[in-house]
Amino acid sequence: MGCSLPEMLFSSSLTPKWAALLALVAIVVLGSAAFAVGILPELAAPKTTLNAQGEIVPLDSVTRSQLVNELRGTWAAISGGIVIFLGVIAAFWRASATERNVQVLQEGQITERFTRAIEQLGSNKVAVRLGGIYALELIAKDSPENDHRQVMEVLTAYVRDNAKWIEPEKGWERDWDLTNPLSTAIQAILTVLARRNSKGEESNNGLDLSHTDLRRAELRGLPAQNSNLYRVRWQRANLNEANLQGAFLHSGHFDEAYFVDAFLKGADLQESTLQHAFLNGASLEQGNLLGANLEWANLFQSNLKNANLSRANLQHATLTEANLEGAYIANANLDSTFLNGANLRNIKGLTQEQIANSYWDETTVLPEGFEPPPNQQA
Q1: What's the pLDDT tens digit per position in 224-243?
Q2: CA 89 vs CA 6, 22, 78, 131: distances in Å
Q3: Are 200 and 222 in contact (CB under 8 A)?
Q4: Among 86, 134, 179, 354, which residue has the fewest nearby CB atoms (within 10 Å)?
Q5: Whole-number Cα distances in Å, 283 to 187, 290, 299, 364, 371
Q6: How does DSSP classify residue 288?
Q7: Reported CATH class of domain 202-378
Q8: What is the 8-class DSSP label of residue 365?
Q9: Of 39, 34, 27, which Cα lies nearest the Cα of 80?
Q10: CA-to-CA distance for 10 and 17, rounded, in angstroms?
C-alpha cells in the first residue's frame, strides 16, 4: 500500500530526532515550492518592454499574464520534480529503516533461540537435549553467516566435554573394548556435524574433536578438512566418504574403522593405529603415516602417492592395486604384505630386503632395479 511523503517522513520507524529534522526539511521544501509557483513568477515577470523604436513602454496585461503563467508552469515542473525526488529518497529511507528493524528483530529472535537451545542442551532429559541439538542445527541453517561457526563450536565443545578419551593405565594400544556405545546425544551431534553445510567455513578452521572417544560413531561423509582430531578413538567408526583433507589425526585409534573412499589427502596420521581398518579406495596422497600401525589393514586400490610411510607397520596389509608411486617407505614393515597389482614406481627408501616376504604378481610394478621376491607369487 502506497504512502504519501508526509506519511513517509513521519513514519514510526524513524527516531524522533530524525522525524523532526525531516519534517523541517519537508516544510522548507513545500514552502519553497509554494513561493516558486505562487509568488516568484509575479516578481520575475517583466512589467515593461521595448517597442519598435527602442523605447521602454509598459507591457500590456494580457502579454504579462501569459509570461507569468509560463513561469508558473516551469517552476511547478521543477518543484514537482524536487518533491518526487525527495519522495523517492524518503521511500528508500523508510525501506532501509524497515529492513534494519526486521534484521534487528530477527537477530533478537535468534539470540533468544540460541539461549534456549543452550539451556536445553544442559538438561538431564535425553529428549530435551536432542531438542536443543536440533534447535542449534536450525539456527546454523537460518543464520549461516553470523551463527554457523558459533553453533559448531558449541556442539564440538559438548562432545569434548561429554565423550572424553579416558586413557587406560596400561595396554591402551590394544584396548578394543566396544561395550560402551556412544550416547544418543553425542551421536545426534555427530550426525548434525556430518550433514552440515561446510562450504562457507574457513578452509583453515575445521572442527575440534580432539581427545574424544567416538567408538562406533556414524560419521559417513563427514566434512572435517583441516580439523583437529588429535588422539581420537574411532574404533569401528563409519567414516566412509568422509573429507579429512589436511586433518590432524595424530595418535588416533582407527582399528576396524571404515574409511572406504574417504579423502585424506595431506592428513597427519603419525603414530596412529589402523589395524584391520578398511581404507579401500581411500585417497591418502601426501599423507603422513610415519610410524602408523596398518597391520591387516585393507588398502585395496587406495592412493598413497607421495605419502610418508616411514617406519609404518604394513604387515599382512592388503595393498592390492594401490598406488604408492613416490611414497617414502624407509624402515617400513612389509612382511606378508599383499602387493598384487600395486604401483611402486619411484618409491623412496625401499630396500630389496623389505619386500623379501611380500606377495606380488605379474601386474605388480616394482621400482627400477628391483628383483621380484622369490617364490612369493600370490
Answers
A1: 999 999 999 999 999 999 99
A2: 13, 11, 17, 46
A3: no
A4: 179
A5: 26, 16, 10, 20, 28
A6: B
A7: mainly beta
A8: B
A9: 34
A10: 11
Cell of 331: 624402515
pTM for this model (two decimals): 0.72
DSSP string, 329-347: -TT-B-TT-B-TT-B-TT-
Half-sphere exposure of 85 toward its Cβ, with a 13 Å CA cutoff? 8
State the Cα–Cα distance between residues 35 and 80, nearest whole angstrom: 13
Residue 91 sits at the vertex; the CA angle it makes with 85 and 95, to the nearest 5 degrees, is 150
Q: Which residues contact 187 (CB under 8 A, 6 or more apart)?
A: 217, 218
Count CB-CB contacts under 10 A for residue 238.
20
Residue with cell 550416547: 183
Q: Grid coordinates standing for 40? A: 516568484
Over residues 303-348, the pLDDT tens digits come to 999 999 999 999 999 999 999 999 999 999 999 999 999 999 999 9
